[in-house]
């Protein structure tokens, strides 16, 4: 059996290496939702049965929320990545798709090992309605686009901050985000938004302990933010272990361009203060995924949310380096155990 999948995997690598132009994305510009989804479907067409595209559910405006899975064999543990839950943070989906492209196209043995040893999931655009809105109407939009039913002087107020709406210590940050017209509005109650319910249903469909790492990509600030976001009075049971894994990311991501990532509980580090009801805390606190983090990509504030597209490749490179370091550290801590 081992020989069979090894041969199959080697043929996948050989196939990938001769098929250089595998997709329609270029990471020299930011792409819209249609282009990202077209690229996803093309990956599935080219790399079936190793790549599968799922529709996890639909956004408020009925756009599909897609997840891409790469699996070279059965029995692997899984790593889950999501991006563009905040519509304004374009670099997050640019880098997550670029990273998947690196995984599938690299002749670097470190990345080939990652491809062989783990199942990979990517939700490139968690918030498709908001993402489309930033491309077509307002570059500065953050939330989804579901009407709140409340109006202010500017008219009806739309949208909930999806990364404040998860049902784990929801509304416990002490930071008032209960104004439906606020950019950080956390919703009228936890788990009200169709986008995060789609994600939760999808993840709930997998066996316990299958997903071992959960990474939410955001910008900006260059941080690896660990649970918890809502308090610094208590820390997660394996906080020291998560810190060592985050250190693995930061040390590896530093090498190429000298980009410094700070790491620690998001309640300690997040520039916007406490956060509650976010995806990483839900993944850790409700789903018992033993390493969960929000990774805030470049930069440290010069361009902020409007990071120029000519930095995408560099951010992708340092993220890819960081992931290799993070996974080595997670293996050392036996949070990840590669199948032999
Ligand atoms: Zn964000």
TrEMBL record:
Catalytic center residues: 296
Signal sequence bounds: 1-24
Cofactors, names only: Zn(2+)
PROSITE patterns: PEPTIDASE_M14
Keyword Protease set for record: yes
Residue intervals of the Peptidase M14 domain: 29-330
GO terms, biological process: proteolysis
Presence of the UniProt keyword Hydrolase in the record: yes
Location relative to the cell: Secreted
InterPro entries found in the cross-reference section: Peptidase_M14
GO CC field: extracellular space
Entries under PANTHER family matching the protein: PEPTIDASE M14 CARBOXYPEPTIDASE A DOMAIN-CONTAINING PROTEIN-RELATED, PROTEASE FAMILY M14 CARBOXYPEPTIDASE A,B
Entry function: Involved in the digestion of the blood meal.
Protein name according to UniProt: Peptidase M14 domain-containing protein
Organism: Glossina brevipalpis
């Amino acid at each position: 059996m081992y020989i069979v999948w090894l041969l199959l995997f080697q043929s996948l690598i050989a196939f990938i290496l001769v098929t250089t132009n595998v997709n329609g994305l270029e990471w020299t510009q930011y792409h819209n939702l249609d282009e990202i989804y077209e690229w996803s479907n093309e990956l599935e067409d080219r790399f079936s049965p190793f790549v599968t595209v799922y529709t996890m559910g639909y956004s408020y405006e009925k756009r599909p929320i897609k997840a891409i899975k790469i699996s070279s064999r059965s029995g692997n543990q899984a790593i889950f990545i999501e991006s563009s839950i905040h519509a304004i943070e374009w670099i997050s989906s640019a880098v997550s798709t670029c990273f998947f492209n690196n995984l599938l196209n690299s002749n670097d043995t470190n990345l080939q090992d990652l491809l062989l040893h783990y199942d990979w999931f990517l939700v490139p655009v968690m918030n498709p309605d908001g993402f489309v809105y930033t491309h077509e109407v307002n570059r500065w939009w953050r939330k989804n686009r579901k009407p709140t039913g409340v109006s202010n002087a500017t008219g009806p107020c739309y949208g909930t901050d999806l990364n404040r709406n998860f049902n784990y210590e929801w509304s416990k940050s002490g930071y008032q985000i209960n104004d439906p017209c606020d950019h950080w509005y956390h919703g009228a109650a936890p788990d009200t938004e169709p986008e995060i319910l789609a994600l939760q249903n999808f993840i709930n469909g997998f066996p316990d302990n299958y997903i071992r790492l959960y990474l939410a990509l955001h910008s900006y600030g260059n941080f690896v933010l660990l649970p918890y976001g809502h308090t610094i009075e208590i820390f997660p049971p394996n906080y020291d272990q998560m810190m060592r894994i985050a250190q693995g990311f930061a040390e590896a991501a530093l090498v190429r361009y000298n980009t410094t990532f700070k790491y620690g509980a998001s309640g300690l580090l997040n520039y916007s203060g406490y956060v509650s009801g976010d995806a990483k805390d839900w993944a850790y606190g409700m789903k018992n995924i033993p390493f969960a983090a929000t990774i805030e990509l470049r930069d440290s504030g010069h361009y902020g949310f409007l990071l120029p597209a000519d930095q995408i490749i560099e951010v992708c490179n340092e993220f890819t380096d960081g992931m290799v370091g993070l996974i080595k550290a997670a293996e050392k801590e036996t949070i990840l155990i590669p199948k032999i």
